[in-house]
Amino acid sequence: MKNIAQIREISVLSFNERVLQEAEDPLNPLLERLKFLGIFSSNMDEFFKVRVASVQRRIEMGKKNMVAVLDHINEKARELDRRFQEAYENIITCLDGEGIRLIDEEQLARERGPVKAWVNAYFRDTVLPSLVPIIIRDGLPFPQLTDGAVYFAVMMWGSGFSYALLELPSALARFVELPNGCIMYVDDVIRFALHEIFYIFNYESIGAYEFKISRDAELDMDNDFSEGYVRKMEKVLLQRKGGRPTRFVYDNQMPAELLNLLKKSLRLGLSDTAIGGGRYHNMRDLMRFPGKRKDLVFEPMEPHDHPVLDGERKPMLDIMADRDVLLTYPYQSFDHVIRLLREAAIDPEVQEIKTTVYRLADHSQIINALLNSARNGKKVTAVIELQARFDEQRNISNSARLQEVGATVLYGVPPMKVHAKLVLINRAGKWFSALSTGNLNETTARLYVDSMLFTGRKRIASDVAAVFDYFENTPASRTLALPKFKHLLVSPFNMRKEFCRLISEETRKGKEGRILFKTNHLTDSDIIKRLYEAAAAGVEVDLVVRTTCAIIPGGNIRAISILDRFLEHQRIYAFGCGDEARVFMSSSDLMERNLDWRVEAAFPIYDPDIKRQVLDMVGIQIEDNCKARILDKVQQNTYVRGRRGGRRAQYATYAYFRANQANRGQTTK
Question: Are 462 and 545 members of one domain?
Answer without folding.
Answer: no
